Amino acid sequence: MRHRPPLRPAALAAILAIALTGGCAADPDEPAGPETASDATPSAPGSSSSSSPGPASTARSSSAPTSSTAPTSSPRGPSPTATPPTPPAPPFIAAATWADSDYGVTLQVAPTDSGRRAWGAGDAEAAWREVLQLAPDADTPGMWEQFDCHWTWARLLEPDKPTWNVEPWRPVVPPERMLAEGCNPGGPEV
């Protein structure tokens, strides 16, 4: 069955807007720039400090470090040569179970920890294929769109939600309405 494309461009634009407007703000308790000699507190000769690598000195230099004294990591993150973390891998879905509700049947989709962290290209589609392996009769109009909405938004807004419920009785709606109705068009969340 053919489905509408996922909401990826709109989701990525929203995440980018959040990051650019404050999601990546610096810690107000830390200085914004590099530390200078006037910022440092001199340490006594022979003493050590956890904030400065290498042998103790009476003052820190504000000149650029040479290759022999360049730090391999900083308190703000790993060095550029650090191995990047391994991206989450399938399985993304732990269970997909049909249940009854006051409004009709609902498919309760339980993501794995990996599914909660996966943001790679094609991960939503791979997760939906896992859902269809667990519940083949879920491939009905509107179900993919509800799932994709939950995959994109519920993981951000309710990261610990145990299941994402998708229902075949909900209407097929445009992406804007799907998002405006909290991934549950045509009725309350069940």
Automatic annotation (TrEMBL):
Region annotation Disordered: where it falls in the sequence: 24-94
TM segment ranges: none
Biased composition (Pro residues): 77-91
Ranges of compositional bias, category Low complexity: 36-76
Highest taxon, organism lineage: Bacteria
Signal peptide start and end residues: 1-25
PROSITE patterns: PROKAR_LIPOPROTEIN
UniProt keywords, alphabetically: Signal
Name of the protein: DUF2599 domain-containing protein
Species whose genome carries this gene: Dietzia lutea
